[in-house]
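Why do we care about 3D structure at all? Because function follows from shape, and shape follows, mostly, from sequence. That is the central idea of this module. The next example makes it concrete: a single protein chain, its amino acid sequence, and then its structure expressed as tokens.
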Amino acid sequence: MLQRKDHRFGVRGNLCAMCLFLLGASITILLPAQTRPTSHALLIGIDHYSPPSGTALPVAASGHATDSRFGPGATWHSLQGPLTDVAAMHLLLEQTYGFTDIRELTDEQATRQGILDAINQLIADTQKGDRVVIYYSGHGSQRLDTKSSKNQRDQTIVPVDAWKGVKDIRDKELAILFNKIVYDKQARLTAIYDSCNSGTMARGVTESVQRTLPYDDDDVAKEQGAVLESDLKRIPQQGDAIILAAAGPTQSAVEARYPDDGQVHGAFTRALVRVLRQNTQALSAEDVVSAVASMLHADPLDFQQPSVEGRVHESLFGDPVAAHQLHVHVTKVAQGKSTLDIGSAGGFDVGTEFTAVKTDADGNKPILVVTSVDGPTSSTATIKNGPAMVTAGEIFEASNIVYPQAARLVVYLPQPGPVPTAAEIANTKALFPSLTWVEDPTETPVDYLVVQDSKGWIAYGQDGHSVKPGKGSKGAAFLLLGPPPEVVDRIRRTEPFKRDAFKFTADLGEANYFLTIRPRQDGKPEYALFDRRVLAAHKQQDYVRSEENDPTEADLNGGKNPEVVCRNDMSFPVRTAWLYDSSANATEDSIAPVIARRILRLGKLRVWQQIPAMDSGVTDWPYHLAVVRGNASATDPLHPSEQYDVRLVTTADQLSGRAVSPKYIYLFGFDCAANPYQIYPTDETNGIAQGPPLSSDGAFPTTYTLMSESVTPPFGADTLFLLATKEKINNLSLLTYDGVIESKSRGSGLDELMVNLNDAGSRGASSVVTSWQVQQVVVPSRP
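And the structure:
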């Protein structure tokens, strides 16, 4: 398995390219009102940025770059929405979340020193366990930093006195202050910034304004004692924090006048307040951002892409998130059809149903049924239960999942029966006196599988011929025992089996895997799945043995990692770990869901490996995935702890004359045992998945290192999948979601499965949506 060694990748010192929205993590128990921690809020809003009429800028324009804030012809435009945003946030925190200590800092009060003093006072007033909200609405910008930032730009918020030459407050300065709240005071921080600096895109809506000012070209490197990236030993989102972004790195956050009240609002803040007011239950940060994105899609503004980082599965203001199934969000409603923000990436097919999280005015919950899966992040649904109304931004949760045909695994099921005793097994083997017996066909190649069907015991040879009991053909054989009937019945009652995610068969020739048991010394059965390839001729060196790396299966195994048998050419295990429940009160209820989960993972990997890769250079993103090891001349599999880089690579010719569009980058993998894992971005860095970044000369690089990795157990073939898309996936749990194993099992650890990202529905993995790039690389390793 690949182990991530460095996951910072430019997170430090990025405020507005990812708009640095730091949101507080949640506690796990809702305390009674009289014992709940103190809630503090500091709300900052700045409308007026323009210098007084007739006032000249304090620095000569000739000394600055033409595109800088102080260059020739530079303008400082004021805003109209921040004070309205502050008022809306004040009411939300006070009325909906019960905040009592709410401080406001607006317009002329919000100088650089005023903001820093207010934050420091907030820090001084904060005690362990308090929840703290810092909200900013105003201009965002950048400042030249040739000393520590990768793109030589620090992200900033702009104080009201910036026109005088007073410096902006940089992301690194804010991170130092936020760390005092998160780490020193051990409080939960919520810092929301409705501002951005991402550039020059024109807005086509009347009275809409970008909340950005040109950058400050006064280099931070010249400033004595300035906070640099090297000064940040840790960042808030790696602690008790969540990070949101109001707009993508190449987009601007905007404000506009809305017809419902005639006032100017920040588009992001307006959507955020509406989502939080409309939903009575506590939502996770990723759900909030997805719903906000859906509302922004519905706005008559060019879309700005919000995102989320950090503890995305926790709520914004510390309340427990209710257990729930897969959530989807309505992005558009037209002609009786609703567009959802999840498609094949959610691992469901046509016919899947979603029930509204909130009740409508009549006390009912609308149900949507999927009529078409239009792409990885888009599907169409219609209302199933009557004339209920559905609006953009509304949240629905999965209530009846239909699995895609391409994900369904066929498993051979031997005749179920009681766990045999040693004497009974000996008697069965005595029926075939010419055969020699092996305990595990991955240890010694076999010529026959001996199974029981409705007519009795029979041996199947590699050539497909069957041998009846008696002195028949000679060779090595493996006794394939059926599971206890109560375990089989329990597997059949799991949700995936009921939804036809996989099926059992009595035909060995039809199966992808076969399920068997073997009795342990204590008489308990242990279960494993074997790839039918194990029956093919092979050499011992073709297989790789190492420890499994799955916490759920280790828990069943008394806390010890069981052994898995892998290959070096693909990530399907030859044999899964032998699973058994070591607890004193073991029942089919504990083992059956884990077996079902294992089968589902194999099915998902099967779909992923069928996904065709798009050729590099056929889109506006000419990069391909490359794995580069430290020893470039080595050709053998990677060795334990050997480090290598995962890079995006292209050539100067492929970049030349091409209008490259940065994509949101997601990197996932399956280890050799078919265990899925997310590599990039991690939860706390989700907001900066877009890349590759421009180099210091404003050009796209030919090589960009995403991360450095090293190899840990289980050894064998890891498969890495790169997905690059112009549409951001706000809810990263989609990429580890595969429906439910058991009803109401969300969060139990049994649903952490990879999804398929093939083309829509049951057509299988025959094509890839053109807005996505999908590539895969196999990385072999040996102990």
